[in-house]
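Posted in: Structural Biology > Protein-Ligand Complexes

Title: Requesting predicted complex, zinc ion in pocket

I'd be grateful if someone could produce the 3D structure tokens for the following input. Sequence and ligand are given below.
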Amino acid sequence: MTYKTHLSTGLLFSSVVFLLIYKIELAPALVFLLIISTVLGSSAPDLDTPTGELWDKIPGGSLISRIVNPVFIGGHRHLSHSFIGLGIFTGLFYLLLKVIPYEPAAHNFGLIILAYITGHLSHIFADLFTEAGVPLLFPLGYHFGIPPVEKMRIKTGRWFENLIVYPAVNLVLILVIYMYIKGAK
Ligand SMILES: [Zn+2]
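-- Reply #1 --
Done. Output follows.
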């Protein structure tokens, strides 16, 4: 999937977790942190693409991507799209969070980590529907996909993603936020 679809899917998953399941009280600082963590989680798996859209948005991104890339072992859609990768990335995010001297972050540690995991999982989930699938059990090479027949899956960046999947995800996202606001009244 493309970056924009991953962002919307991440926000949708997070909204379901925090607004519908946890029904948290939304303080502005917490909302800000949850959104940032979700965005990081849903973006992180594709940092293994040296030419990824995300890198183009960062100044000097293409240079950084070449330095960071070896960390991701073997290029696109490997470690970062697996359960082991999810664990390692969450650990790194945890360490990052520990060194940030921002009080609301310390207060809501668990929720913020959960937002990251939700974003990262949403990314892996969305990529399951693409032709390439995902190596959930990396370092085992097998790529999982839904449906199992590769030809029936979505081609990244083509009309089906742009005209059906992306608008549908955003529509459901709006619906979830609407349900939360209506329920909160
Ligand atoms: Zn991906």
